[in-house]
Amino acid sequence: MKIITTEDRLNKEIVLNLVLDLSIMDSMNELNREHMLSAIDHVKKHICDNDGGPFGACITLGDKIISLGRNTVLKDMDPTSHAEINAIHAATKTLNRIDLSNCTIYSTTEPCPMCFSAIHWARISQIVYGTNIDDVKKLGFHELDISNETLKKLGNSPIKISANFEREACEALLQYWQINSGQQTY
Amino acid sequence: MKIITTEDRLNKEIVLNLVLDLSIMDSMNELNREHMLSAIDHVKKHICDNDGGPFGACITLGDKIISLGRNTVLKDMDPTSHAEINAIHAATKTLNRIDLSNCTIYSTTEPCPMCFSAIHWARISQIVYGTNIDDVKKLGFHELDISNETLKKLGNSPIKISANFEREACEALLQYWQINSGQQTY
Q1: Which of A12, A57, A103, B77 has the fewest CB atoms within 10 Å around its CB?
Q2: Where would I find the beta strands (DSSP E) of chain B?
Q3: Chain B interface disruption, residue of A50, A76, A97, A121, most B CBs within 10 A
Q4: pLDDT, tens digit, for every residue of B109-152?
Q5: Is residue A168 annotated as a catalytic residue, yes or no?
């Protein structure tokens, strides 16, 4: 019979912790995926209404969705009615505070500099996005083409950024808009 | 008697045009001054209400004021209720369009990156501002410290920028806020 040494026990513990960590990461990724898909679905539902660009956002706190937003620039006749701004408005109302620390925002497309700065003002901790500003500039939107990473670096912002998350699903949303809407840009 | 040559006539014309240009510039500067003072007055009237930061904006088209805005972040419990955003909302309603081309925005303080980008989206042609982002960061506001000139350059934006306009009057507004309000920052 093999004698189990202290070293064996330590090694076993390390492996078990690693499996546990990977399992937690898996379930977190699955949750992140669900949040992004919620943002996509929220836009798709209204795509034929031509209310604005094909962009959605979802704000979460822990594993709970606090708000959903979609671009309604044309419907509201308001150049600031972007998905992220609408989601921030709804989240501050729901949580009854302007400080959204510890919240995460999922954006189907990389937030434009207006929205990145609004996210900074709201003290949201993390941005997770799919397609990037370049992708939608090509569709004809009057984008100020400055990446979130550049803004974070220049402004010395503590915001965490995760790019290219569920990129294929977010690209499919842009294609869905091209097929099913009047493709009105601004 | 001195004979007036063609050259004399041309020189006289040049001088007359120069005097006329200077006179037009003088009256334009006076008008610009009035627009900035309107933005300052709009903030001062409400300074004791503690509705938000001591920042005002005025949007003009030609020599006509289209809208006034002031920061109401705390009153509205909305981190995006900056003076410029509020002024853009009001201007789009007044002009019944999202495109504010040929408009000028006067900001008592350099627009933050959120507002600069909103101004870009609204296609406002010119920004005229007094104090700068650094001045108000020192007061305790959670500014993303990126200048308008940097954003213009990086984003390749056509917006014209005039800095330090009526700077003393705009500095006096910040001091007025320090004396007469609860100095609540966010």
Answers
A1: A12
A2: 56-61, 64-70, 103-109, 126-131, 160-162
A3: A121
A4: 999 999 999 999 999 999 999 999 999 999 999 889 999 999 99
A5: no
